[in-house]
Automatic annotation (TrEMBL):
NCBIfam families: PRK10738.1
PANTHER family, A to Z: PROTEIN YHFA
Record protein name field: OsmC family protein
Organism this protein belongs to: Massilia polaris
InterPro entries: KH_dom-like_a/b, OsmC/Ohr_fam, OsmC/Ohrsf
Source taxon at top rank: Bacteria
Transmembrane segments: none
Record-linked Pfam families: OsmC
Length: 146
């Protein structure tokens, strides 16, 4: 896997990143650090990538388990160390998984497998951060209340 990050120049602290798969992403710093707040911070991108990695796993595991998954959102809330290096110290993942007749145990198993076995980003971040997670299931197969 290859990526390239290039500084946009001396007028601030913004960077452009190109992935090996040909996608472009912008990053910027906070105004107090010389940035202009025009794009996500690099550490926000790390957190975004972790959310994407684990959501991908959860959906794939549920689909392989023949669960009728229709949606998966994950919100991450992180705390960082106060001194450099300001690594993540705590991360809470909250999943909202939508589908028909999803089993509580299947969703919980998918989340645990992602965090413990499959999501490379989560496994790396777990070296410095304590993880917690919660989830809600939205059942689209239940009859509407009258």
């Amino acid at each position: 896997m290859d990526v390239k990050v290039s500084w946009n120049g001396p007028s601030g602290m913004s960077f452009r990143a190109e992935t090996g798969s040909g996608h472009m992403v912008s990053m910027d710093g906070a105004p107090e650090g010389g940035g202009h707040n025009l794009a996500p911070r690099p550490m926000e991108m790390v957190l975004l990538g972790t959310g994407g990695c684990t959501a991908y796993d959860v959906v794939l595991i549920l689909k392989r388990g023949r669960e009728q998954v229709e949606g998966c959102d994950v919100s991450l809330r992180a705390e960082r160390a106060e001194t450099d290096p300001k690594v993540f110290t705590r991360i809470h993942f909250h999943f909202v998984v939508t589908g028909k007749n999803l089993k509580h145990a299947a969703v919980e198993r998918a989340i645990n497998l992602s965090h413990d076995k499959y999501c490379s980003a989560s496994i790396m971040l777990a070296k410095t951060a304590a993880f917690t997670h919660s989830f809600d299931i939205v059942d689209t197969g239940a009859p509407a209340a009258v």
